[in-house]
Amino acid sequence: MSLVNLDFAEELKEYSEDTALECFNCGTCAAICPLVHDNFPRRMIRYVQIGARQKILENSDELWRCLHCGLCTHTCPREADPGEIILGLKRFVVANFRRS
After folding, report:
1. Strand ranges (E), 1-100
2. Residues 93-98: contacts with CB within 8 Å, 24+ apart?
3. Percent residues over pLDDT 70 in the chain
4. Helix (H, G, I), strand (E, B) or coil at 41
5. What's the total number of domains in the chain?
6. Do 73 and 82 touch, CB atoms closer than 8 A?
7. Backbone dihedral region of 36: left (phi > 0), alpha (psi from -120 to 50 degrees) or beta?
8. How many CB atoms lie within 10 A of CB 56?
9. Does the residue 2 lie in any domain?
10. Closest CA to 72 of 21, 8, 23
11. Would 1 be classed as within a structural domain?
């Protein structure tokens, strides 16, 4: 069972722009990404939206698959900037790793 943190998107503002809530989870980013599979980065963005902080920390190894090629950001119909969200999540994970 995962706890939901309703303030998680606000907490991420410390690490990147707050654009995760702009995403309507259409899947364009997951479809265009040449390197990853299994609904990445779509799943990570959904975790941010629902406040599943622990799920992000548990699956943090997935974040390092992203090479920031920019295809997801370029094709996002809502301009949610998925690449920047993933970069912010990397910063978040590293900061939380240092605290533990």
Report:
1. none
2. 93/56, 93/57, 93/60, 93/63, 95/15, 96/57
3. 97
4. coil
5. 1
6. yes
7. beta
8. 22
9. no
10. 23
11. no
Read off the tokens for 82: 């998925």
Is the pLDDT assigned to residue 36 strictly greater than 80?
no
Domain extent, residue 51, equals 8-99
The two structure tokens encoding residue 74: 């370029």
pTM listed for this prediction: 0.90
CA distance from start to end of the chain:
21
- Find where tokens 């999540």 sit: 89
Cβ–Cβ < 8 Å for 18, 12: yes
3-class secondary structure, 83: helix
- Residues 63-97: pLDDT tens digits? 998 999 999 999 999 999 999 999 999 999 999 98
- In one-letter notation, the amino acid at residue 36 is V
Does a structural domain hold residue 55? Answer: yes
